[in-house]
Amino acid sequence: MLRCPDSVCSSVGKGDSLHHQVLAAFPLCPLTEEDLTENPLFCKLLATLSQHVDHTGLTLHLRKELEKTEKELRSQKLCWLRLESLHRLLKEMVQEHRCSQHHSIVSAADDKFYDTLEQCLIVARCAKQLDPSDTINQDQSLILGLSAEKVLNQMPPKQDLWQMKQRLPTELQKHLKKKLFSLLSYYQPEWENESEGLKCVKLSKLPALLESERNRAESLTERNRENATLLQRQTHSYLSELLECMQLLQTLVLDLRLKVQKDLDRKKIEYFEAKCEIGIQKIRAEMLEVQLDTYTRDKIAAHRKITEKLNTELKAAQVEKQSLESKLASFEIYGREFEILAEEYSRLQQEIATKSWALKEFTP
Questions:
Q1: What's the pLDDT score for residue 74?
Q2: How far is CA 102 from the centre of its chain?
Q3: How many alpha carbons fall within 13 Å on the CB side of residue 9?
């Protein structure tokens, strides 16, 4: 059972300082001062645990073991990276030699050196694949019946191997220098035409420059992350403000619409009244036109009837005239009676003239 240390027990009475101590000791726990105030015994338990664990919850002994293990892991990673880098450099050297064989004449010594190096790399790779580790079952069947010992027997002759090892550091140094100069030219193209000695001096400063560039890139990345977070917050704030403005604008538009609605309705009523008045006038005009057409047709019909009547009377008067003329011709030998007939004839002539004039006036 854990016991409260003296330092903790002495600070139990100081609520604020104890709360701050617990919150600082366990930053990953979602605790608040209210939680600690409401649960004083739990607060004391956490204060006691803070003397035995770190901020992640690991015990101090386990933290030391973890740091030691991480240190060993970093050392092994560094060793593996060195071997892997050396292996890749040797493969690059062989590949560049194979490419140069197609573009230029290569000496026999160079061919022998790179053939020996390539054979060593292939044999080493095959032996590594065939060498069983602790995690592989020892009783598993061998690939094509081969073992690591059989593959290692395919190494080049000792004399060729010794000559290759003697020349390898020099060739490796040349290859590394060539790669470094290429890296320097890529990083600073204006240094490409400098002398080899000056390039070597500047190469000694290149790691520090690259480290500063890496730190600057990390700083810019962190700044971009902070700017992105700030931009997200500002965007959220902007959208909130914009939403409030839209709500306020909607309220203003609604109020303005209610105030203007009366005038708008009045104008609509006036418009519809004017439109109705125009429609009524059109209807009246059509009715008047219909009435006028009816009156004109009636008048024409009346004129036609009067004309027919006058024509009939005219024809009758003409017949009577002819009859009288014939009688006048037969009776003109008579005296007084002839005068009477002449007067009657004059009256009929005058009546015929009057009816002929009326017929002309009423004929359209």
A1: 92
A2: 52
A3: 5
Q: What is the pLDDT of residues 186-226, one digit of tens each?
A: 777 766 677 767 777 777 777 787 788 888 898 999 889 88
Rounded to an integer, what distance in angstroms lies between the CA atom of residue 164 and that of residue 115?
A: 10
What is the rounded CA–CA span in Å between residue 134 and residue 355?
151
Backbone angles phi, psi at 59, to 5 degrees: -70, 160
Compare 195 and 1 and report the one with higher pLDDT: 195
Angstrom distance (rounded) from CA 260 to CA 99: 87
For 152-174, how does the pLDDT look when each residue is reduced to its tens digit (9 = 90+)? 777 788 888 888 888 888 888 88
Range in 47-56, 115-124, 185-194, 233-242 the model is least confident about: 185-194
What one-character DSSP code corresponds to residue 14? Answer: -
Q: What are phi and psi of 27, to 5 degrees?
A: -70, -20
Q: Tokens 């330092």 correspond to what residue?
A: 7
At which residue do the structure tokens 């990276």 appear? 81
Interior/surface letters 155-177, b for 16+ CB within 10 angstroms, e for the rest: ebeeebeebbeebbeebeeeeee
Higher pLDDT, 179 or 363: 179
**Which contacts qualify for 122-131: CB closer than 8 Å, 24 or more apart?**
123/151, 123/152, 123/154, 123/155, 126/151, 127/151, 127/152
Confidence at residue 71, expressed as pLDDT on a 0 to 100 scale: 92
Residue appearing with tokens 């803070």: 50
What does the DSSP 8-state code read for residue 142? Answer: P
pTM: 0.43
Tokens of 49: 């645990």
Contacts of 96 (CB under 8 A, 6+ apart): 175
Would you give the distance in Å from CA 200 to the centre of its chain? 51
Q: Are 362 and 355 in contact (CB under 8 A)?
A: no
Per the listing, tokens 């429609």 go with: 279
How many Cβ atoms sit within 10 Å of the Cβ of residue 27?
9
Q: What distance in Å separates the CA atoms of residue 301 and residue 275, rounded to the nearest whole number?
A: 39
∠ CA 114-192-81, nearest 5°, is 50
C-alpha distance across the termini of the chain, in Å: 138
The whole-angstrom separation of Cα 340 and Cα 332 is 11
